[in-house]
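Note to self: keep these together.
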Amino acid sequence: MAAGWSPTVASPSTRRSRSFRRCRRRSSPLKDEYRFSDLKAPGNGRTYTTPSGIPLNATYIDYLRRILPLQSARFRMGGELQPVVILVDGKAVGVLMPVRK
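Structure:
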């Protein structure tokens, strides 16, 4: 065994679960909610645009399209430079930041 190696290092972090709980608490007051189908295709290939005009990174959105269920996934956001909460079946599963205009 390597010095300093511990099997507990590979166990899930409680910090991550605490941050998702905070996202769930913060997800309810956010005003805008969109589906994948509501996003406008990227003209420049770099960003998708929400109906309210907020640009989201196309690489992240394309990845999320591949791994999340399209019917139940939602994006909830509060404003232009506010975090975007990713929801599946009403539960927060992640967060991403919009692209600066």
